[in-house]
Fold:
Amino acid sequence: MDKAYVAVLSFAFLFLFHYLVARRNGNGNDSEGKKGVQNKLPPSPPSVPFLGHLHLVKTPFHAALSRLAKQYGPVFSLRMGSRLAVVVSSPEHAKE
Structure:
């Protein structure tokens, strides 16, 4: 077999495996499988394995966060790659 073909198949298999494991552990927002922590997180848009929510940031970052705040409220969570972030977009909610 061609080396490029093997590399593409390997990447596809790893992507599918990661996706299935993330879905088994919850809705993809919590790859560690900690259900208690997941229930305490603010709402979040659906994420993509490996990338998290980076696919949602196509416009300037502040404009993307503003658009997400309109859709999910002033407090929401995002996963940037493997890092979890909680976004608070109003001073009133930041004080809480």
Observations:
- Residues 3-95 form one domain.
- The longest strand covers residues 75-80.
- The radius of gyration is 16 Å.
- The beta strands are 75-80, 83-88.
